[in-house]
Amino acid sequence: MNQNSLLNLEQISKDVRERYSTRYKTHGYSPLTLGWDSTDHQITRFEKVTKIANLNGKQVLDIGCGFGDFLDFLDNRLISYSYYIGWDTVDYFIAEAQSRHSNSKSKFEVCDIITLPINSQPIADVSIMLGLLNWNLGSKEKNIQFTKFMISKAFLLCRHMCIVDFLSSNLDPSYPPEANVFYHDPSEVIQLVSTYMQNFILAHDYPCIPQKEFMVALLK
User: Fold this and answer.
1) Spatial separation of the C-alpha atoms in residues 178 and 155, rounded to whole Å
2) Strand 158-167 relative to strand 124-129, pairing
């Protein structure tokens, strides 16, 4: 794959930082900053992750961790992970996460997965990447290429499993589609991940939050 044929990765990375930094300056520590309408919907997504993967005794890499809310979820549910690493490209988010967590089994770092070397080595048992592939880049071709690029990066960073979520093209009739987001076709995502390996899980069975989503877990 020629990752630069359609994508300006530097510009995408810059746009992400600017978008979320602006939201943080407007809303501060709030689900609205991260694009959530409520913490309940956020928790629904987290619950699905822990139904797919048993994280007890596992090292977890949370790519695009925001304020570290998934770490709070794990602690509140008494899930005995061995270590948690939270990465985000927005320095405001990492500073906020560091100020709110003093867990000796966790750390937060400013890290942009887009700029990591393509030959990166695994650093955790399970990598998760939630909410990073939903922004509309202007064309289906660009979004699909970006999805391939990001999944390939996240997959390299895990030893056992990589979990990614998507907004589904199987739309909820009660929620009108939005022009600024991209809806992935589950069948196309299956075809995409099949290029990595034969073993994967697709979950399209959890409630709308508020739009219909699905998750895919790639297994090594």
Assistant:
1) 29
2) parallel
Distance, CA of 204 to chain centre = 16
Which pair of structure tokens corresponds to residue 25? 């300056």
DSSP letter assigned to residue 135? B
- The residue assigned the tokens 């399970």 is 126
Residue whose tokens read 């003093």 = 102
pLDDT at 5: 67
Going by pLDDT thresholds of 50, 70 and 90, the confidence category of residue 29 is: very high
| C-alpha distances out from residue 87 to 51, 98, 112, 141, 203, Å | 22, 11, 8, 27, 24
Output DSSP code: residue 168: B
What are residue 126's DSSP bridge partners?
60, 161
**CA–CA distance from 60 to each of 28, 64, 84, 142, 196 (Å)?**
26, 13, 5, 29, 21
pLDDT tens digits, 36-72? 878 899 999 999 999 999 999 999 999 999 999 999 9
23: left (phi over 0), alpha (psi -120 to 50) or beta: alpha
Distance CA 22, CA 146 (A): 23
